[in-house]
Amino acid sequence: MNDTPVSDIETLLMACQFGDGQFPSGAFGFSWGLEGLVTDGLVGRGDLVPFILGQVDGRWSGFDRVFVAHAHDGAGDEAALCGLDAGVETYSLASAQREGSRRAGAALLGIHARLGTPGAAEFRKLVSAGKTPGHAAVALGLVLAGAGLARGPALALSGYGFVSGLTTAAIRLGIASHIDMQQAISAARPVIAALAQSPVLPIDEVSSFSPLTEIAMMRHGARSMRLFSN
Amino acid sequence: MTVSTEVVGAARVGVGGPVGSGKTALVERLIPLLRGEGIDLAVITNDLVTKEDAERLRRSRLIDPERVLAVEAGACPHTVIREDPTLNIEAAERLDAQFPGLELILIESGGDNLASTFSLDLVDYWMFVIDVAGGDDIPRKRGPGIIQSDLLVINKVDLAPHVGVDLDRMVAEAREVRGGRPVVLTNCRTGDGVDGVVRAIRDAVPLGRQTGKSAGSGSR
Ligand SMILES: Nc1nc2c(ncn2[C@@H]2O[C@H](COP(=O)(O)OP(=O)(O)OP(=O)(O)O)[C@@H](O)[C@H]2O)c(=O)[nH]1
Ligand SMILES: [Mg+2]
């Protein structure tokens, strides 16, 4: 395949680097409701594939994906990014979800600012100054745009990160094996691929429907035993 | 690409070591001594399954509860201090922003094994706490925590006679595997020896951070 343009290979490598579970962005500290569902016996062994597909459909597709896409488009436009950020804050129901998203966003902006990714340090300053919350989806969209990743690959990376974060949490919660994890990611891959290339809703049509995980996150803060931040 | 060189804040000192070796007990003993020297202090804990250590420190009244932050490690105590210290770094920067003038942040790792080490992007200095009840052969096992830490603390010396540990031999072997780098003995029940930990920190760690270094190893 020596006729493949260099830029495609670079895109692939960039996606490998920033989508890698080893990329230091604090993702392993969050379970986004899964820990609570497992604790309450609502998700267990054998449930991983339907759970992941349900989360991709109910949460990532209509919510995270839309914010990442608009933040990618709006990279460099401070007012647009802050507007999106306010949207995530408003539409995230559980405080553990909002706080987790802010902390994950801060970690992502921190590492990209240190790596010199264009746009990261500027937006991080606004967050540090308390001018905007700095949610993960907005941070991801803007840093991937800054790094030079086109919107499609950026959305693919977002979907992959969403799924890999939940599946590795599932392993650490003891409800999945390494093989279960890979099977779940494989099951989600075509769905993510299709969504990464399909039109993105206008921001005022953003939606999410995942009531059990949201309730699980609402209950999370009060639990005394917990491995994850949400 | 430009490289960020900002970041001015408190010095950061890591406290790592196996489960139950006395990390929180040591932090509880260090707080009054460090504050007694007029040091503006805060603490981050990386509890494994509960917020117990953070709550214990907050309830202790040794320090303003707002100055104690808990960072959940998602069952990965070593990841959060080494491979991906970003959550701890962000927590430290939050403390820096919230308490201008902050000079020192103690970061207690979740209990781990002898191989755990701290990223030098996260801390300026770190100690590894083991206890005599773990056996006097621990230093000989040469884990990276034992070898690479800036300071090795051997805690619970009061238990040595009860668990058949030859303390002199344990210390000699610890010094040997560490190539003569500092080893301190403590009893965190009584506070004996903890002043040695304070001196080691004071000798090695300039308080506060003057300027950020450029990105790369040792920077943050
Ligand atoms: N006899 C004796 N007991 C000690 C000493 N230091 C701590 N302990 C006891 O050892 C137990 C564990 O101490 P912690 O300070 O909670 O240990 P830790 O390393 O923070 O534990 P994790 O955070 O769970 O890994 C407690 O019961 C302490 O009271 C000591 O010097 N002597
Ligand atoms: Mg402890």
UniProtKB/TrEMBL annotation, chain A:
GO molecular function term, any single one: nickel cation binding
Localisation: Cytoplasm
GO cellular component: cytoplasm
Alphabetized UniProt keyword annotations: Chaperone, Cytoplasm, Nickel insertion
Keyword Chaperone: yes
Spans through the membrane: none
Annotated InterPro entries: UreF, UreF_sf
Main localization of the protein described in the UniProt heading: cytoplasm
Organism domain of life: Bacteria
Pfam families (alphabetical): UreF (PF01730)
PANTHER family in the cross-refs: UREASE ACCESSORY PROTEIN F (PTHR33620)
Family membership noted in the UniProt record: Belongs to the UreF family.
HAMAP family, per database record: UreF (MF_01385)
Oligomer and partners: UreD, UreF and UreG form a complex that acts as a GTP-hydrolysis-dependent molecular chaperone, activating the urease apoprotein by helping to assemble the nickel containing metallocenter of UreC. The UreE protein probably delivers the nickel.
Function: Required for maturation of urease via the functional incorporation of the urease nickel metallocenter.
Official protein name in the record: Urease accessory protein UreF
From TrEMBL, chain B:
Species the sequence originates in: Skermanella aerolata
Record key words, sorted: Chaperone, Cytoplasm, GTP-binding, Nickel insertion, Nucleotide-binding
Annotated function: Facilitates the functional incorporation of the urease nickel metallocenter. This process requires GTP hydrolysis, probably effectuated by UreG.
Subcellular location: Cytoplasm
Protein family membership: Belongs to the SIMIBI class G3E GTPase family. UreG subfamily.
Organism lineage string: Bacteria, Pseudomonadati, Pseudomonadota, Alphaproteobacteria, Rhodospirillales
Name recorded for this polypeptide: Urease accessory protein UreG
Binding site for GTP: 17-24
Database matches in InterPro entries: CobW/HypB/UreG_nucleotide-bd, P-loop_NTPase, UreG
Matches recorded under HAMAP family: UreG
